[in-house]
Amino acid sequence: MKIGKWILMFLLVVAPVFSFGSTTYAKDPTKETTAYVDVSVLTVWVEPNIARDVDLPSLTNPVDPWKWTKNMTYEEKLWLVGKLETQALYGMKVHILEEQGDWVKIAVVGQPTPREEAGYPGWVPKEQLIQSKKFQQLERRPFATVTAPTAFLYSNQGLTKEFMEVSFNTRLPVLAAFRDRVLVMTPSDGTKWFARTDVEIYQSEDEIPAPTADDLLETAELFLDLPYLWAGVSGFGFDCSGFTHTIYRAHGITIPRDSSVQARYGTYVEREHLQKGDLVFFARNGGTGAVHHVGMYIGDGKMIHSPNSASTVEIVTIDESSYAGSYHSARRYLEE
């Protein structure tokens, strides 16, 4: 009888647990499971196990985002359309929703979508995430945010031993700051160093200065000629809404992740009243159908945007571009 009781306790207590990398997580769906991105750029897939051989540099730990994007042909990049959901950056928080073999379904915190209250959902390899109470305890510390298109973390304070190249808008907790370097904590590899010129330090998200339209445009122009990447949200490649979402997010303003949702929030703006920094949207069926593209208005009838898999971030005159006949609407996310 006692043996049966212990077997029952084992089934109730031990069985609902699964291994996740070097960490164990409870499967109890009523308990939130938090993890952190442990690669420079985490690529989030629509389904597990659909990636191709060419995608291997995006699936490992560490990843090699430049090798991945530069080795793909146009056709191989085009294949990604509809296969990827979004991306997340080094150190970002995610919630674990589901497990399937070596993959987990996550929700990316800070990327709003009506699809999932916890964040933008999709599937990623388990080995690209880490659970760390030590890192979690540093969430309220000042943080360094990368302001260069990409920047290196270094293993030594002399900034001579490169550890990892990370993206614009990567945020890591600050442990110490000096005139020319900043000591930060990583999710699983201890302390590393940034060059002071590659980051800004903020005490909290609330202390990020409210941007002007010119601030947004200056940031956007850092990425001119960067090749498009479907689902991209990083200095290694953006899609259209990943570009606008990330530019605003870097300046302390969180807007929805997708263009169709970005077009439903903010303040509606008539076309004749467009101002710099406004988001302009384009739709199918001559502008009357579903929104499928977004750019940022820069004045004089022009926008900066990340158009498609065949292109790079560019500035175009709207009425002289391929989007001339599909203008849909505009929204303003800057405070007046």
From TrEMBL:
GO biological process terms held by the UniProt record: proteolysis
Domain NlpC/P60 positions: 210-334
One Gene Ontology molecular-function label: cysteine-type peptidase activity
Keyword list, A-Z: Hydrolase, Protease, Signal, Thiol protease
Keyword Protease recorded: yes
Signal peptide start and end residues: 1-26
Keyword Protease: yes
InterPro entries: NLP_P60_dom, Papain-like_cys_pep_sf, Peptidase_C40, SH3_16, SH3_YKFC_2nd
Family: Belongs to the peptidase C40 family.
Designated name of the protein: Polysugar degrading enzyme (Alpha-amylase)
Organism for this UniProt entry: Halalkalibacterium halodurans (strain ATCC BAA-125 / DSM 18197 / FERM 7344 / JCM 9153 / C-125) (Bacillus halodurans)
